[in-house]
Design brief:
The protein is α/β, with parallel strands linked by helices. It is 49% helix and 7% strand. The strands form five sheets. The protein has a seven-stranded parallel β-sheet, sandwiched between helices. Helix 9 packs antiparallel against helix 10 and helix 54 packs across helix 56. It is globular, with a radius of gyration of 40 Å. The relative contact order is 0.04.
């Protein structure tokens, strides 16, 4: 249940406005400390001609009169100074503004005066003097604080940011910078509060309030951490406020706590504690962090300290109750919660909030302790007070789901999701810690998982169950897919027990098809929801897709010496008195040889008490695990286990989610739940030969029931101690008597069976109702109809609603009649002490199918009651038959068909002698079931083998051997089938939901460039579909991109063997062969469509056969006659076919009605035919059409490139044509950029340490030209390494150097580097131009003077100089010439290469996170274009209007034509991975 612990104050509180010191900062110290002269007397000669006098007057006014009592005197001095200086004194303007704000509360005038002071400080006249940065910072600081405190946090943030930028440029002044950073943090929080208040009035927009709140905290945290980092540097903290560090540590800790970063939060709380170790808020913070991390004892100690300081502290007391709750001490927790309620003061302003918080915990405690009705009543009472409390909604939603009211339960969970900021997958709108749209928080992810895994306890009928199962799998797959992109690592769940809190317990009872794929699908969902390495220390290491480190040991035990014993752990929540999972393992734990093993029992806290005494005495060590996930995890890791056995993993959340950790080298799952885990961290599934399908090895991969390696123990495979002996040896005589006295029900009437007539057979089916499959209902009615003098007894469900739904189901059965149903009796649930009495009153027990049980059947056999069973294929229906095999009993009770089952049950019921014979035989042989030491031997043998020890000798027979294999042979002679069970449902081309998910995610990972993840998913899919040529082809394509060429060839050839006509596989194999250098073989594979021709042309290109490459592509797109011989002389502009040139050039433009009107319909028809030639046969889906369009565009682009390389491309003619179509002036002249009235343009570029001197010169020319460009206001240069002493990267006058900002990255920049810098340091209303280092601009940048539209990015193709631009001058001369030359540069329309990116505003963080690849790599531009479009950006290429000049061969040498494949070819492995898109030349956005 959702417990409420400490509610931390997240808002960063600043005790008072952080105004900068108002003493005149521009006055030298000796003037400030001199004696103050009298006030100015206008009657005398003006002393204001002396600057020293002015400074002394300002010092006097600010130090002596700037207070509430004398501020009029200070104002008089400021006015006189301003009057004499014509309002040109910065100090007077500044201080007069502060005075008007502080004492007159005249905010507008204060803002006006401070704004005038800032303008004056930046006036050109002031530039003649050294810049007084400290004064500027103080004015900005005070103006920002006035904006913030007067309710305008947006302007406050903007003002503070300007000041922060000044401080960073100036260096020093750390005392003021600290205040700025602190105020900036407060501004972000105030902005959130302002938005939140407005949003509270609009319930449908409540999530936006949460979004703003989280975003504000994130930004505030950033500012606080910067300030703290600078403040802790030696020598920088002399002027800090006394409580600066304490308050900053505390604020950062609280924000990090709110983000779930508990370890980091704890560290900052501890720093604060070193300053003040008795601060209650700090101690509470430490305690809550420790509690969240699972360190309950340490947390409890902190709360005790708080209560010693403040005995009435409500949160400390409440949290101690929560700790008892987490430990499973429910009664103590309830006692504390009630005490907290009783101590509330109704007059306190927080009364209602505190009351609700405590009531929620109390209701959750009642439910956890089994008092469900009381707990639900309390929660519903809270809903009447306030229906919008997420924790209460979650608790109620979980309750209703467990009740079986899935729709109602999920509605409650959905309301909680909305309140918490994520609205679910219905509309794809998520929010998280950084406030981004389209991102999901970990809390919401946990609740969405609850919705997806909720299953009804009682199945209504087989069609409904089949539909439920399919909906379950599809829902899990859909959420898993969304989590990949919607849940960043920073938001992933670190405590799944708390976040998810439920498991899909009822899945195994569906008995539909193969559970393995379903479990694997669930594991995929969790792998994208949980954080690997979470918490303090090791964390959740989930299976498929978990990323680096998934499935690896998170706690490596010390290396053991060979003679040391093997440490074996057994973990479960169901180790209490007479609980089946403990009984099944008791003998194993007790009798494993102690000279070889140490056994450790890990018992998860349960409301019923601790582990049973027979388990405590059996184990060498016993460890009680808390109900806190992290605490339990740490305890397990501390045990340094060699082998860990999970007794169950699908019964409750703690053991289930602990299984996602790698705690021991070997981890195995026992069949406490007879279902595979689907979890990569579970290595083995322990079963027995008798309990598995005799034909198991005939299953294909797809139909294999286990994801783990299956361990088939010989013999019975099930341990049960003889019950009476177990009790007498484990419990005291007093306890035994108490147990006997606790069994109070002896007669039928005691159990509520009142209408049982003498001579009537009593059939008992004592399994839980959720285990009874709808198909078994037919058997019930058949037995009742065939044996008229009989009744069948069921126990009621744990909840009344379950029994009602079960009865409704039976009444809808076609075989239902009132007469038959009247002989079905439902009795109250029976405890374990009364259960033997009930069994002894039965005549025959019905072991249901397709799901059976072990404990119930063996209890019946203990008392000689015939148990009729029909063994199924799967473990879930084969436990009872193993007991019969041990006893050598078959004919009376084991059926091989439904008809036999009904017949045997009827005969046993009708024939008393037959029943008595069966009873006698069972009692005679049931001893063979108990204390089976062969089971222990089999466990020992397996444990030694997996631990790498020597084999264990076979034990001497301790009892009469019985060849049970003879009994099993009887079953093997007949076909084994699951009665009436439908196979796993499929949905698309025989793909199951799990297989569809693997295919979908593999494709998505490939598109995103995450090739290792794509390969992993495809290998999993190939296991399921080994002969699927599509899967083999996709895997081969991914392997090729990973440059695993030999493996790719093998896989692709396998696909072609299966389907020799599979064109795509042949194409991919051709690419692989090309990469391997086997060009002739590659060409044999490449023929047919656009992609194949393009790849064949690349083969020719890499073979230095450029002319042949051109001919191949041209004749495919046009006719042989049109292509002609061409010049191919490599001399520059050729005289190739003008028609092909024009059509190809227009085909590389974005199509629009404007373009059609400009070129004419006939020519556009030719162009359209060329563009649509790769459009396919009309049967493809949208994605296939897009892929084919991209393939055709790529082929046209290749043709243009080959024409260029062979001298057939007339670049000047194409550029002229583009300008004519776009109505762009062709005289090369533009109005020059003006300083005023335009948007600022910031250029971001880079400087590399090229080995080539010529290449370094090109970079310097471009940088010099751009710095000289009047349109460029700022140049930011990312350095690959720090500049050497005296090294210059530009050649210019010194007065231009202040344009340049150098950023030392120490590596090649990524696109994300540029985006992050722009987001953090450039205003949203300014233009950002990101360019390669060898690109220069001219005055055409003027077209950007009005900015770039929102969510629009320009991706510009560079211009090349079409004449020899060589110069004998230096860098400066070449740069000046670049700024002047226009017509000598022409556009070559490469739609696959953009050297410049232009935008305004903040780039979405989703884009930033995915753009962490280097600039300049092959395919980087196409990948970025696709990434931007995926995130709803419009990407345009207006290269005709904005000229980006490529600075190649600018000083010496001729341009020439590339004729060497080495110059333009590259290996596939060098490029950026993922889906790419071309960017057509745009004429729709010309200026």
């Amino acid at each position: 249940m959702k417990l409420t612990t400490l509610i931390l104050t997240i808002t960063v509180n600043i005790p008072c406005a952080r105004f900068a010191a108002t003493n005149a900062a521009s006055i030298v110290d000796e003037v400030i400390n001199s004696s103050s002269p009298p006030l100015f007397n206008p009657a005398l000669d003006s002393p204001y001609s002396d600057p020293t006098y002015i400074n002394s007057q300002i010092s006097l006014a600010s130090s002596s009169y700037h207070n509430e009592e004398h501020y009029l005197l200070a104002e008089q001095i400021y006015n006189e100074i301003l009057q004499y200086t014509s309002n040109n004194n910065i100090d007077a303007l500044h201080l007069k503004g502060i005075l008007n704000y502080q004492f007159r509360e005249d905010v507008p005038l204060a803002i006006q005066l401070l704004t005038e002071a800032i303008a004056l400080s930046d006036h050109p006249r002031q530039r003649l003097k050294p810049v007084d940065y400290k004064l500027q910072l103080m004015i900005y600081t005070n103006l920002g604080e006035i904006y913030r405190s007067s309710g305008n946090p947006s302007l406050a943030i903007a003002t503070n940011q300007e000041a922060i930028d000044i401080a960073r440029r100036a260096g020093g002044h750390y005392d003021l910078l600290f205040g700025l950073l602190y105020n900036q943090a407060q501004g972000h929080l105030d902005l959130n509060e302002k938005v939140s208040e407005w949003e509270k009035k609009k319930s449908n927009l409540r999530k936006n309030s949460y979004q703003c709140h989280i975003m504000a905290q994130s930004k505030a945290l950033g500012k606080l951490e910067i300030g703290l980092q600078m403040g802790t540097t030696d020598g920088r903290n002399e002027n800090l406020p006394p409580n600066f560090f304490f308050k900053t540590y505390l604020d950062i800790a609280q924000i990090k706590f709110s983000f779930g970063e508990y370890l980091d939060a704890l560290d900052f709380f501890q720093h604060a504690k070193k300053i003040n170790d008795s601060d209650v808020e700090v101690l509470m913070g430490i305690g809550t962090c420790l509690q969240k991390m699972g360190l309950l004892d340490d947390a409890f100690g902190q709360y005790v300290k708080v209560l010693e300081i403040d005995p009435r502290h409500p949160n400390a007391k409440l949290n101690t109750g929560a700790i008892y709750h987490e430990r499973g001490e429910i009664e103590r927790a309830i006692e504390i919660y009630k005490s907290c309620l009783a101590s509330l003061n109704i007059h306190e302003p927080t009364y209602e909030r505190s009351k609700v918080m405590i009531m929620n915990n109390l209701g959750a405690a009642y439910i956890s302790g089994g008092q469900v009705d009381s707990g639900v009543a309390i929660l519903e009472q809270i809903m009447e007070i306030n229906p919008d409390i997420p924790d209460v909604l979650v608790n109620l939603g979980s309750f209703y789901n467990e009740e079986g009211s899935i729709e109602k339960g999920n509605e409650h969970l959905q309301r909680a999701i909305v309140l918490l900021g994520g609205v679910g997958s219905g509309n794809g709108n998520y929010n998280d810690n950084n406030g981004q749209q389209g991102v999901l928080s970990g809390v919401s992810a946990g609740l969405m998982i609850r919705q997806r895994i909720a299953l009804p306890p009682i199945q209504l009928d087989l069609p409904t169950t089949t539909a439920t199962r399919l909906n379950f799998e599809n829902g899990v797959a859909e959420l898993a897919y969304e989590l990949i992109s919607k849940l960043p690592n920073s938001n992933k769940i670190i405590d799944p027990v708390n976040a998810v809190e439920r498991i899909h317990f009822y899945l195994v009872y569906h008995c539909i098809g193969n559970d393995r794929q379903t479990q694997l699908l669930v594991n995929q969902m969790y792998s994208h929801a949980f954080l690997v390495g979470a918490g303090a220390g090791a964390g959740v290491g989930v299976g498929a897709g978990a990323g680096a480190g998934a499935g690896q040991p998170l706690h490596l035990a010390r290396k053991k010496e060979k003679h040391e014993k093997i440490r074996i752990g057994f973990v479960s929540k169901f180790f209490g008195d007479f609980e089946p999972h403990g009984l099944l393992l008791e003998g194993i734990i007790r009798y494993l040889p102690r000279e070889l093993f140490i056994t450790i029992l890990f018992s998860i806290s349960a409301s019923g008490g601790g582990p049973a005494p027979y388990l405590v005495s059996a184990a060498d060590e016993v460890v009680l695990l808390d109900l806190n996930y992290n605490s339990a995890r740490f305890s397990l890791m501390a045990a340094e286990l060699d082998v860990l056995i999970f007794a169950d993993m699908n019964s409750e959340p703690m053991n289930h989610f602990l299984g996602y950790n790698r705690i021991a080298k070997i981890q195995a799952l026992f069949w406490g739940n007879p279902i595979t885990s689907g979890n990569e961290n579970i290595d083995f599934f322990i079963s027995a030969d008798r309990m598995e399908n005799p034909f198991l090895t005939k299953n294909s991969n797809r139909h294999s029931p286990y994801s783990e390696q299956l361990v088939l123990l010989d013999g019975q495979g099930i341990w049960y101690s003889e019950p009476n002996g177990l009790i007498s040896s484990s419990y005291s005589v007093e306890m035994q008597n108490k147990i006997m006295q606790s069994s109070t029900k002896l007669t039928l009437a005691d159990f509520g069976i009142l209408n049982h007539l003498p001579g009537t057979t009593l059939y008992l089916c004592a399994q839980s109702l959720f285990k009874l499959h709808p198909l078994f209902d037919d058997v019930v009615f058949d037995i009742l109809r065939k044996h008229e003098k009989s009744v069948i007894v069921f126990t009621k469900g744990r909840r009344p609603a379950w029994t009602e739904k079960f009865i409704d189901r039976m009444k809808k059965n076609p075989k239902f009649t009132e007469q038959l149903f009247s002989r079905i009796i439902f009795i109250d649930r029976v405890n374990s002490l009364d259960f033997p009495s009930l069994i002894q009153l039965a005549d025959v027990m019905l072991h249901p199918f397709p799901f059976g049980g072990s404990r119930t059947s063996v209890d019946g056999l203990q008392h000689g009651i015939p148990v009729v069973t029909f063994p199924q294929k799967s473990l879930r229906g084969r436990m009872a038959v193993s007991f019969y095999a041990s006893m050598g009993i078959w004919d009376c009770c084991v059926a091989n068909s439904v008809e036999q089952y009904v017949d045997k049950a009827t005969k046993l019921g009708q024939n008393e002698q037959l029943r008595e014979d069966a009873r006698r035989l069972i009692l005679e042989r049931v001893g063979r079931v108990w204390d089976d030491m062969e089971v222990v031997y089999e466990w020992t043998r397996w444990l030694l083998r997996v631990s790498g020890k020597d084999s264990f000798p076979s034990p001497s027979p301790s009892r009469d051997e019985f060849n049970s294999n003879v009994m099993l042979k009887m079953q093997r002679d007949e076909e084994v089938v699951d009665f009436g069970i439908v196979p796993t449902p499929t949905v698309d081309d025989d793909y199951t939901p799990y297989e569809l998910f693997l295919a979908r995610t593999a494709s998505a990972y490939n598109a995103a460039g995450e090739l290792e993840s794509s390969k992993r998913q495809l290998r999993l899919l190939m296991f399921e579909r080994p002969l699927d040529v599509g899967v083999l082809n996709d895997l081969g394509a991914v392997l090729e991109q990973l440059w695993e060429l030999n493996a790719a060839e093998i896989v692709l050839r396998e696909a072609i063997v299966i389907n020799p006509d599979f064109k795509t596989a042949r194409n991919n194999l051709g690419v692989v062969l090309k990469d391997l250098g086997r060009m002739d073989e590659a060409l044999e594979m490449l023929s047919g469509g656009d992609l194949e021709i393009a790849n064949a042309a690349n083969v020719l290109r890499d073979s230095d056969k450029i002319e042949e490459a051109y001919t191949l592509v041209c004749e495919f797109l046009f006719s042989k006659g049109e292509c002609g011989e061409g010049t191919g002389n490599g001399t520059g502009n050729g005289n190739g076919n003008e028609n092909i040139l024009k059509i190809t050039a227009i085909a590389l433009l974005e199509h629009s009605p404007r373009l059609t009107a400009a070129v004419g319909e006939d020519l556009m028809a030719r162009v359209s035919k060329l563009r649509e030639g790769g459009g396919g046969d009309g049967h493809q889906d949208q994605q296939q059409h897009q892929d084919q369009d991209q393939n055709r565009l790529g082929l046209i682009n290749s043709l243009a490139t080959f024409m260029h390389w062979t001298g057939r491309w007339d670049g000047a003619a194409v550029t002229r044509m583009y300008k004519e179509i776009g109505f762009v002036d062709d005289d090369g002249s533009y109005d020059r950029c003006e300083e005023a009235g335009r948007v600022k343009i910031n250029l971001i570029t880079s400087y590399f340490s090229f080995e080539s001197e010529a290449r370094r010169i090109e970079s310097k020319i471009a940088l010099t030209a751009n710095t000289m460009n009047a349109c460029v206001d700022r140049v930011v240069v990312f350095l690959e390494r720090p500049l050497l002493s005296g090294e210059q990267i530009v050649d210019m006058a010194v007065d231009m150097a202040d344009k340049i900002t150098l950023i030392n990255l120490g590596r090649r920049p990524t696109f994300a580097d540029a985006f992050e810098f722009a987001n953090d340091h450039i205003r949203n209303d300014e233009v950002v131009v990101l360019s390669n280092d060898d690109i220069a601009f001219d005055h055409t940048l003027k077209v950007l003077e009005n900015g770039v539209p929102d969510k629009t990015i320009f991706a510009l193709t560079r211009h090349e100089h079409d004449v020899d631009f060589g110069s004998t001058g230096g860098v400066l001369q070449a740069a000046m010439r670049l700024n002047q030359e226009g017509r000598s540069f022409v556009l070559h329309p490469r739609i696959d290469s953009q050297d410049v990116w232009v935008w305004s505003g903040e780039i979405d963080h989703t884009v930033v996170d995915q753009a962490r690849f280097f600039q300049g790599l092959p395919r980087c531009d196409n990948r970025l274009a696709a990434l931007l479009r995926e995130n709803d950006y419009t990407v345009l290429n207006p290269s005709v209007g904005i000229v980006a000049k490529h600075c190649e061969n600018m000083i010496v040498g001729s341009r020439g034509v590339k004729n060497n494949a080495v110059e333009y070819g590259y290996k596939v492995k060098d490029g950026v991975r993922g889906k790419g898109e071309f960017v057509l030349i745009s004429l729709d956005y010309l200026f």
